[in-house]
Amino acid sequence: MDAFYASVEQLDNPELRGKAVAVGGSSQRGVVSAASYEARKFGVRSAMSSVLAKRNCPDLIFVKPRFERYREISQMIRKIFFEYTDLVEPLSLDEAYLDVTENKKGNPSATLIAKEIRQQIKEKTGLNASAGISINKFIAKVASDINKPNGQKTVDPEDVISFLEDLDIRKFYGVGKVTAEKMYRLGIFTGNDLKMKSEEFLTKNFGKSGIHFYNVVRGVHNSEVKPHRIRKSLGAERTFNENISSEVFMLERLENIAEEIERRLKKSKVAGKTVTLKIKYSDFTLQTRSKTISYYISDKDLILELAKDLLYQEKMKNSVRLLGISLSNLNTEKNEDKEEQKEILVQLKFKF
């Protein structure tokens, strides 16, 4: 979906149409969750501090997020997807992968299917969507950003390599700002530059991600569309517009994050045993601290108590720009383990 949260607000409130809109808080420590395309022209982006966003765009209009409304429209859109295929893998409220190799419409053209789906979304919700079509998830994801907003891009099998070779490295899905800057220092600016590097070189400089980069630039990405992904963890994090060094302020932020996690856990009807605290310092170094207990929890107070223990576990190295909490080792994994055990038992039965 194109600028989903902001577009929903403009859809529901005609007075906002054609204007620079940011979904998020307008306070000193507020952060932009989403920005309309009118706002993006001024450099307003998601995760940007509200203060900086307002400085870039003085006429920016802030709107509080309405997640229930976004979920409602997201469900309408997913119903459209399921008219074409059951192989739908949602990534978030506004994005999903679809495998239409075999589809309910019997349409041999994925390009035409994408066009139909986008048209249906427009007719039923009034919102614009963009699409990427190709041989695997990685290339489709990259292609979906090429003709935004309200467009689509098909990368045919014979064009995959040339498409990736010409691509700016910043447009490779999974290459963030920090990774891009590191690649620049190594002389990697385009897909072709990346392709010229050996697997050994990429692994040495990027670890396991190096193997991923080596494969995807050659058009290799074997991840299937998984419609029934079992959730492995659930979390939330906050980036601050000003670095904080006071533990009092940190505890306030952690309390807000714990409340958000509790809400998500209750909605998903899950609980977990392992709490992980994520800390990103002002110099962008990242640290995680985890603690596992013997029982499942989903209560914000218990989550916060464990997060506090992890916060005080050792002295802060620097001022902090991001805090996050995640809960893993979820009770959803018990069902997965049972299925794996069943499969092993079946194998043993046949073996003996």
TrEMBL record:
Its cofactor is Mg(2+). Its EC number is 2.7.7.7. The record marks 5 as: Substrate discrimination. Mg(2+) binds at residue 94. One of its GO terms (molecular function) is magnesium ion binding. One of its GO terms (biological process) is DNA-templated DNA replication. The keyword DNA repair applies. It comes from the Bacteria. Pfam families: IMS, IMS_C, IMS_HHH. It is found in: Cytoplasm. Transmembrane segments: none annotated. It is an enzyme of class 2 (transferase). CDD domains: PolY_Pol_IV_kappa (cd03586). Residues 1-176 form the UmuC domain. Keywords: Cytoplasm, DNA damage, DNA repair, DNA replication, DNA-binding, DNA-directed DNA polymerase, Magnesium, Metal-binding, Mutator protein, Nucleotidyltransferase, Transferase. HAMAP family: DNApol_IV. Poorly processive, error-prone DNA polymerase involved in untargeted mutagenesis. Copies undamaged DNA at stalled replication forks, which arise in vivo from mismatched or misaligned primer ends. These misaligned primers can be extended by PolIV. Exhibits no 3'-5' exonuclease (proofreading) activity. May be involved in translesional synthesis, in conjunction with the beta clamp from PolIII. PANTHER family: DNA POLYMERASE KAPPA, DNA REPAIR POLYMERASE UMUC / TRANSFERASE FAMILY MEMBER. Monomer. Belongs to the DNA polymerase type-Y family. This is DNA polymerase IV. It comes from Christiangramia salexigens. The gene is dinB.
